[in-house]
Each structure stands twice: as structure tokens, then as C-alpha cells.
Amino acid sequence: MALVLAIDIRNTRTRIGLALDGRLVSQWAVPTDPDETADGAVACVLGFFDALARGLAPIEEGAPGAIDLPESAPLADGAIIASVIPALTGVWADAARRLTDARPLTVGPGLKTGLKMNFSDPVAVGADRVAEMVGAKSTYGAPALVIDLGTSTTFELLDETGAFRGGIIAPGMKLGAQALARGAAQLAAVELRAPKSLLGRTTVEAMQAGIVMGEVARIDGLIDMIWADCGYTTPVILVGQDAETIAALMAHAVTVDQTLALRGLLELYTANTRR
């Protein structure tokens, strides 16, 4: 029985996944702390394991009902990390070494991905985006379009050969809402949910329409533009914060897959440790 930790560090949220024999068993999400220490990261994983042992952590569909968790270190056989915050990469790597007694893999130069990068600067492609594309290719095949809703809204297109053709990066919905509240003296922060009607009858409803429905229109519009540019349609996979809310409002059929990056990390771990 092989236990592996997959750690996905984003600007806003960090997800920790636990896999048993290559299959994702459970995941745990915590706010990303820019001042995190290795001690704090260890405590976070220990909290995840404790919640899992007590039946308080979510179990992925198809996972075994009972998981035999170690009671002392090493808690797992290995770990893999994807990080978009360089200052936290080493912090979590130190924590992972303590938890596993092994050097963790880190998504970046030197790691085999199996992805052909039709990109002028492949090294500049974020580790999170690489993990998502690996997960999408493995699960949905190619071509495929991955859209990630986070601090930024990103689009990644895998072409018909499974190569990364290119992408789009735009400000995320919450970032846009924060900028609007900061830049307009008479506009306050609002809850990001769909308004009762497209044309708001209050300032709050008008802002919700502009922010939420504007994001929906932007994503729907960019999907059509991407398909027109590449000359074919693709499955569309939506991930990230508010993905379920946005998917329900979109004109295009999409699949929401919140485990995509973690499964991609596990694919990368297997590919780089296979003997």
C-alpha cells in the first residue's frame, strides 16, 4: 500500500490530496498563508490526517471505505508539490520531507510531464497549469480546454495531439470585484452571486450582474473565440472557486472537476518515480 501526498499551492488556497496506490482518496483545502512556516505546514497535514481518521474529511467517490493511516512518521511514502508562490515552495518541501522521510518532487524544470509545449517559454508555464493539463489529458483525452477560476481566470488549450497550444490569462472575478470596490468611492464590496434579473434594480444587483454575468459572458465568448481560432470544438473542464456557480449560468456545456490538478500531480508522481 503506497500513500502519496499531492500539494497544490495557489495564491488564495492550498489543496492537499492523499492518494492510495495512485488513486485520490481525500483532499483538504486551507487558505494560503504567505507567512507559512514548515512547522505550520506539518501541523496542517497532521490536521488533515486527524480529520480523515475521525471521518471529518471528504472521501472521494470510489475510494476504499477504510484507510489504514500510519500513526507516526513517515505518514506517507512520498509527495509532489505544485506551487505558484516561490517563497512557499521550499517551506512545503521541508514539511513534506519531515512527513515522508523522502525528497518531494516539485513541478518545474527537470520533471518529466509528457506534455509537448508549443509555447515560446515553457518554463514560464505555471506549475498549477501543468498539473491541470496532465490531469485533463489523462481523464478527458485531447483536444481539451481547461478553465481555472481563481485569483486569475486562465484558459489552457490542449490541441488534437495533446500538446499545449497556448492559453489566456485574465483577472479573476473576485479580483475584478475588489478593484471595482476600491476604485469607485460609492460602490461597496458585494456577495458574488447571480442577480435576480440581468438588469439590476439596486446598486448591489447591478454590480452582481456586471461582475458575475460579465464573467459568464466573458468565458462563453472566449470559448467560442478559441474554438474559432483552432478550428475545432473541445470538451471544456471548469475548475476553481465558484466553478459550480458559473457553470450553471453558462451557455456552453462544461464539466466541473475540482480534483483535476491533484490527479494531475499524482500522474506526474507516478511517471517520475516509476522504475
UniProtKB/TrEMBL annotation:
The keyword Kinase applies. It comes from the Bacteria. K(+) binds at residue 148. It catalyses: (R)-pantothenate + ATP = (R)-4'-phosphopantothenate + ADP + H(+). Its EC number is 2.7.1.33. ATP binds at residues 8-15, 151. Homodimer. PANTHER family: TYPE III PANTOTHENATE KINASE. This is Type III pantothenate kinase.
